[in-house]
Specification:
The protein is built from five helices and two strands; from the N terminus they run ββααααα. α3 packs across α4 and α4 runs antiparallel to α5. The two termini are 16 Å apart. By secondary structure, it is mostly helical. It has one domain.
Length: 144
């Protein structure tokens, strides 16, 4: 079965590598930063009165979400575009944009240049994994 020229297994691979890291990032964010806007929205949706705060190593609680979300974004963009350059450019531009708008006075977030570095690492690792996956798929198809 094929959809838009892509096999069902390929679509499942990219969907899982988009949805799972995105969900894990949200879960990590909610449980390590209970006072943030996203956490408040999620707690309100579930009408939870008690806030859960999980203590994790600082690098994971501060930057894990950024890594997971950029990894997720690059997989999603590659699924749609099938272009390494496009995916890389859009992901980096989006990461920089999101961080830079945090410098605006009416945005209640904190600019952190390390977030950009972590997001770029997530993008690069994601593209490396995509390259390996695409090479494996190509090798399997060439054997048939």
């Amino acid at each position: 079965m094929r959809f838009n020229g892509k096999s069902a297994k390929t679509i499942i691979y990219y969907s899982v590598n988009t949805i799972v890291p995105l969900a894990l990032g949200v879960i990590l964010y909610v449980f390590t930063r209970p006072g943030t806007i996203i956490s408040q929205i999620i707690y309100d949706c579930f009408q939870a009165n008690r806030r859960i705060n999980i203590a994790l190593p600082t690098i994971l609680s501060d930057y894990g979400c950024d890594f997971l979300w950029s990894y997720s974004l690059v997989h999603c963009l590659f699924l749609v575009s099938r272009s390494y350059k496009f995916s890389l450019f859009v992901c980096i531009a989006f990461s920089v944009f999101i961080e830079v708008i945090q410098l605006l006075p009416f945005v209640r977030l904190v600019f952190d240049p390390i977030d950009i570095v972590v997001e770029i690492i997530g993008i690069i690792i994601g593209l490396c994994i995509i390259t390996i996956f695409e090479h494996c798929i190509q090798s399997i198809n060439n054997r048939k």
